[in-house]
Amino acid sequence: MMKTTCFLLLLMLPCSLFMACSPKEQSNTNDTATSTTIDVEKEKAAILKVLEAESAAFWNKDFEGFASCWVHEDYVRTMGWWPQGGVTVVEGWKERGSRTKAHMETSPDPNATATQVRRENINLRIYPEVAWMTFDQYGADTGDSLMDMAGLSRESRIFEKHNGEWKIVYVGWLLEGAKKAKK
């Protein structure tokens, strides 16, 4: 009897530990739908503002505006695919910043129509210091062969909060191209 009771207790211990740390329990702590410590609408607006500011600065060839949206550390990354460049992987702010600045100097004319993108299917998860987002972006063909993102692009972003402000640490994209948005 004693051996059976001890055996059952040993079996129940991992189960109770598992239940105490189950993904459902854990995710509720930082879940944007249930969190009482995060003002979801305020943070969402701030994150979308950074996303829009970074995109506008990129296409309008405003390097300082672009740089102000990014964390300037070695761990930032961009990874993507597009027809003009194939697979692109950029590691660290030093490389990201210098590449973007060089592109802007090579193609310096602002492209105001490029900011007229439509973002759909937004999936945004917000935690106290980190947020991630995926979305579909539809851009027009602007004629800027170096920096154009025409058609459907599957996008992802990771943001970190630094000194109370959201900044980009990761950008990913897969440019599918000429697909129409869902009506």
Explain this structure to me?
- The protein is α+β, with helices and mostly antiparallel strands.
- It has a single domain (37-109, 117-177), classed as Roll (Nuclear Transport Factor 2, Chain: A), CATH 3.10.450.
- Helices cover 36% and strands 31% of the residues.
- The protein contains five helices and six strands; from the N terminus they run ααααββαββββ.
- A hairpin with a 2-residue loop joins strand 5 (151-162) and strand 6 (165-177).
- The longest helix has 20 residues, at 40-59.
- The radius of gyration is 22 Å and the shape is globular.
Shape: globular
In the CATH scheme, what's the topology name? Nuclear Transport Factor 2, Chain: A
**Measured on Cα atoms, how large is the radius of gyration?**
22 Å
Q: How many individual helices?
A: 5
Largest sheet: 6 strands, mixed
Roughly how much helix do the residues carry, as a percent range?
Answer: 25-40%
Uncertain regions spanning at least 5 consecutive residues: 2-35
